[in-house]
Amino acid sequence: MEAQLKRGFIEACVLATVNTRESYGYQIVKDVPASLELTESTLYPVLKRLEQAGCITARSAEHNGRLRKYYRITDAGKERIGEFLAAWPAVQDIYRYVEGAQS
């Protein structure tokens, strides 16, 4: 999958994951679709970008003697999910166009 396209899907999936419940990095990696091949080294820059954009917030809490960072969606993050879903008909049109060119 092309990198820019994959980036958008990863952001949407991360937001969808923390939309249902607060979560932490390793669990987010496990929860997103395996087809994205998300790793922790890819995830943390995405989390940082989403946090800087105001789409998620983070808090630290101790878990088994170590600090763990938990992420939660904000209203701006919920809006970003809505924008992603609203773009779906346009994506389908483009897909059909490209698919038609293969015939």
Give your account of this protein's structure:
- The chain is α+β, with helices and mostly antiparallel strands.
- The protein is 62% helix and 17% strand.
- The chain contains 5 helices and 3 strands; from the N terminus they run H-E-H-H-E-E-H-H.
- It has helices at residues 3-20, 25-31, 40-52, 75-86, 88-101, and strands spanning 23-24, 56-63, 66-73.
- A 3-stranded antiparallel beta sheet has the order 1-3-2.
- Helix 1 packs across helix 3 and helix 1 crosses helix 4 (75-86).
- The mean pLDDT is 93.
Structure keywords:
103 residues; single chain; alpha+beta
Strand neighbour order, sheet with most strands = 1-3-2
Beta-strand percent range: 15-25%
Task: Tell me the distance between the termini.
Answer: 21 Å
Number of helices: 5
Regions with pLDDT < 50 over 5+ consecutive residues?
none
The value of Rg in angstroms is: 16 Å
What kind of sheet is the major sheet?
A: 3 strands, antiparallel
Tell me the number of strands: 3
pLDDT averaged residue by residue: 93
> What general outline do the C-alpha atoms trace?
elongated
Order of helices and strands: HEHHEEHH
The portion of residues assigned to helices is 55-70%
The structure class reads alpha+beta
